[in-house]
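Sample entry follows:

:::
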Amino acid sequence: MNLFLNMSVFVHIVELGSLNGAAAALNISPTMVGKHLKSLEDHLRTQLLNRTTRRIALTSSGAEYYQHCKKVLELIDEGEERIKNTQLTPYGPVTLSCPEILGIKRILPFSLDYMQRFPDVQIHLSLADRLIDLMREDSDIAIRIGRPPESTDIIARPLSAYEIVACASPSYLKKQGYPRVPEDLFNHSCLSLNKTILDEWQPPHFKEKIRQSRLSSDSSEAIRLGAIAGMGVIIQSKIFLENDINQGLLVPILEDHPLPAREVNALYLRSKYRSARMNFILNALCAAFPPN
C-alpha cells in the first residue's frame, strides 16, 4: 500500500467534492480513486466518508484525518521545494488564470517571453472572466481585476493597475459633439457600459440616466467594433482600445474627468508560496507589471 498516494487521493476527494473530480485532477479512473479510498479506510479500520449517490460528507474521523493528511502532504511538498530552490533557473509547469482581455494583451506576451528566457518552464494560460476558486481548481496563480478576496489562505501580490478610458469614433463625435463632463453622457448613445465602473466613477444614480445605444452585446469585441462604426460611446480598458486610439479609429473623451483605475492582483495559495517555480514567476510578474 502506498500510504502517501492514498492520502493524496483522499485530500483530492474532500477538496473537489467527488470521486470523479479527484479522478480528473489526478488523471486516474474513478474506480481507481475508490480503490485508494477503500485501501486507506481498511488500513485505518474506520470510515472516512459518508457516500450517497448525490454527495459525500466527512465523518468525524474523516474530518480529523483530513487535517492530518493536509499537514503531512504540505511537509512533503515543502521538503521537495527546499531542494528545488537550490536550482538557479525555474523549470516545470505553471498554470496562470486571468480575464481574457488582460490575458491576450499583457499576460500572453509576458508568458511567451518568460518561456523563451526559461526553456524548461511550461505555462498553461487559462483565459476566463469568471472568478475561480483557488482551493478547488487547478490554477497556480489567478490574476484578477478588483479587490482581492479576504482569506487567510490566499496571498495577493499587487500588479499594474487596469486603466479605463472613455472613447468614441471621430464620425460619431463629429455628428453628436464632444461630451465635456460626465453628465453630458445622458444625451449620448452609450454602448453597454459596465455598471460597476460607473458606480466607482460617479454617484449611484448616474448609471440610471445613461442612454443606451441601439447596439448592445455581452461581447467586448462586438462593442469595440460598434464604437468604431459610430454607434456610440464606449468605456473600456485602455489596453483593449490602445491600438484603435493609436490608429485614430477611436478618440479619448472626458480626459478632464478620468475614470478610476482598477487594482490588479496576482492571487495564489499561501501553501504554494515556498515553491521555487512560483517565486520565480511571481517576481517576474511584479517586475514586468509594477504597481502604480
User: Anything to note?
Assistant: The domain at 164-260 is CATH 3.40.190.10 (D-Maltodextrin-Binding Protein; domain 2). The mean pLDDT is 87.
